[in-house]
Amino acid sequence: ILVEASYWGQYASDIGISQKLDFLPGSYWATGTTRNNALATALNSNVTNPFFLNNYSALKTSSPALYNSMATLGFFTSPTIQVNKLLRAFPQMNGLTENNAPLGKDKINALEFNFVKRFAKGFNMNASFTWMNVRQATSFDNEFDANPTWYGSNNGRPRRFTLSAIYELPFGKGRRFLTSGPASWIVGGWETAWTYQYQPGALLNFGTNDFYSGQTNAMGKSLTTVNQSLGQWFNTTAGFERNSANGPAAYQIRMYPQFIDGVRGDKMSVINANIRRDFRLREKATLQLRLDALNVQNRSQFNDPDTNPFSSTFGAITSQTASVNRFFDIQARIQF
Length: 336
Hints:
Blueprint: E1 2-20, H1 37-44, E2 46-48, H2 59-62, H3 64-70, H4 74-77, E3 80-82, H5 83-86, E4 97-120, E5 123-137, E6 151-152, E7 159-168, H6 182-187, E8 190-199, E9 268-282, E10 285-294, E11 327-335
């Protein structure tokens, strides 16, 4: 028997991520948990465009090439402009983004335990358990944030368990029971193998169209305090605003995390098995019979639930993945 434990850690900085450069400064965004229509209306309203081309008529003679180029751009040919565009950095460059800003970070801590029962008396087993904590800062909660926000990552799962085992049934020639006779020929020589895999599902991704969905929100209710079912995968009564007319308006800062620790999709839990036997036909020829059973428990793997609080299926799982349900495969092979 071999028992092994190991630790590994990783930290990476200066990971290239996308950062919006023509952001609207944070002082102009709405805070709190009440829809602010007035702010959205004010920031989207039109005012006189100070960059209107008619204000630069002198360029017709001093720099005609520049003037003609400006005349092809809507930013300079429109007599009006929205207020929010004038308040942005680089207002003349709509959608200006640095695609590889060296601001991202990533860190991993992991413990791994392995157990090996070497083959003896017709049996061996390998088992492995991994605990992993993966955190990354590779996205911005708000466009004006100077640094990305740390979240749990779906590049790793917090736990993973695998097991594989082979067992030679103790019947037949050279084994413990029924070493000879007709019974030995019928039930002897069989062996079976099993594998099992388990890991939690992916972290659910919550959008920006609600105020309250945090680990524990303003009403003091946790998303995880619910008898989980396909119809209610997480606690949908935990203070969510279900009326879209009352949801956040434009220019509302994010009030809750994008990912919430412990709020995950469907787990993976799969058992596979097979049973096989070799029949000696003659000295140099063997017949192998084998039955494989995939997904023994016939377990369905479900897609993530709906995380849009304005949807009629909010919190519910409505579909499953294209994974294979229970599947049998019978094989016969002659080796010579």
